[in-house]
Known about the structure:
By secondary structure, the protein is mostly helical. The chain contains 7 helices and 5 strands. The longest helix is centred in the middle third of the chain and has 16 residues.
Amino acid sequence: MILDTTVLHDLMYGKEDAIASVSALEADDIPIKLSSMTVFELYYGVGYTDKSDIERQKVEHVLRSIPIVPPDERIMRRAGTLDGKLECDGLKTGQSDLIIGTTGVVLDEPVLTRNVSDFERIPELRVETY
């Protein structure tokens, strides 16, 4: 299961529905992973806030035990092609979400997110929410 940035954000701020969802995955021994694009988005938040030390500590705590999947050539080729197609079809989505979602497609794993609308545009991606 690939966790979207919204899930990590909700975990960092103690949202019970996110905690329950991730706890259920762990109880069922379902491996969880992150796209490195999620790491980028979380650290964007660190740079954006005036409380960067506190935010960085939250980010580092939540990232400590979750494997991170780098955007290899397969992911980036597929994401780039899909980005062009979606834009031509008038279905443009954010590139960060596109890379996170394409990571799920390439690894044949669903993405858990609170932001379903952007991820539903990605063909072949299984999307789960809480």
